[in-house]
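Treating backbone geometry as a discrete language has practical consequences that deserve illustration. Part of our work consisted of pairing the sequence of a single chain with a tokenised description of its backbone. We regard such an encoding as a compact summary of how the chain folds. The amino acid sequence and the backbone structure tokens for this protein are reproduced below.
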Amino acid sequence: MAMMRWQELLSTRRLGRSEPRRPDEHRSPFEIDVDRFVFCSAFRRLQSKMQVHGPSLRSDQPGDFVRNRLTHSLEASRVGRSLGQLAGRFLIERKLVEGVSAADVGHIVSGAAISHDIGQTPFSHEAEQAISAWWADSALGRQILTGLPAEFSHELTRFDGNAFGFRLLTRLEGWQPDGGLQLTCAMLGAFSKYPWSGGLPPGQRPHPLKYGIFSSELPLFREVAAALGLIETAPDRWCRHPLAHLTEAADDICYLIVDIEDAVQVGALSFAEGEELLAPLAEIEPEEYRTLEGSERKLTYLRARAISTLIADTIGVWRELHDRMLDGEDVPPLLDQSSHRSQTDLIAAISRRKIYRGEGRAETVLIANKTLTVLLDSFAGMLLRREPMAQDTELSIHDQAVLSILTRNRQAEGFPRDRAGWVRAMMDHIAALTDVAALREARLLTGGLGA
């Protein structure tokens, strides 16, 4: 198996563009990538998508302080930038790259990290699970799947926002005729944490529940993989880009640490519990820490220093594993090999028990399941009845109203009638919704206009 090369892995070729873009005097190609993403509508929608603490039925539930997907993505991008710059220095020291700066590598990982949650469904992973269960278990979902190729069943019964994110970046966002936002292949490689097709049966995937490419985007990913020299380890399965490990680590570091900070703010953990969890990572300077007044300042201090500790740990592990990653070898998550693993494991265990499974989380699960069931039942039922009709005027008044909600921002006449086409388009609409928009559409579909 051939070793990958950094000159290819840092390719500035843009997906969907055969000719190089004209040089920009003040921005590198990778800075342009970040700018394109930040100005796209999918990025703005992240401000109304939950991170951990989602919608609550209780009006007294604090929520203004805690993070959403937008703030989490911004924070992950800053950690990613630091990790990428440190990786870039390593590559330069070892003379593995030419004409590339440490800042360039920092921008690649920063861009991949800021966009890593772009495909997140409303209500986070709860909606992924609700969507998957609907396709697997509902009579309507199973009926629709019988008329589709097998890859649809493999994908929809284990719906993954990572694959939807790649679809958004490469097909749905932007105004270009091909390649979506036309990002560099280096950025798309670093973005792709699970570079294999969801159309594969789960037993043929490296991770049965995770994948990063819908079968509809396989040709696009093949272009990316060819430009980067990614190793295809099996049909429709590639090794990770070495920088994708840093993208994953930036995400892991942020949610591991900042979820504790948010949990204290919403009362899921006491300040003393949060302090006890973060202090071993923060390497507190006692004299400095004693001067801090109030729990919020102390949490800020602990969070910042804990993140710095894990950045240093992570880049050390990445450097040690560099040659194995360049060979295309599958390696464990970098944070799992931190010298502070025992403390990060403790934080993860406490988070699962007290944050991710609390009463507020149960409310979110129930709201997500009800909302997604209403959306899928209503839209899929209408589209299945519409499938054989030549004109939308043949639909009932009720179904015409449902269609108008689904096609609010597009011409209804252009909405696909073939099953594969309308299932993709319907899922594009549902997965892109914000939490608020999903709730609003579900209320409209059930006649709850005043809800």
In short: The longest strand covers residues 232-234. The mean pLDDT is 91. Residues 53 and 361 are 7 Å apart (CA to CA). The two ends are 59 Å apart (CA to CA).
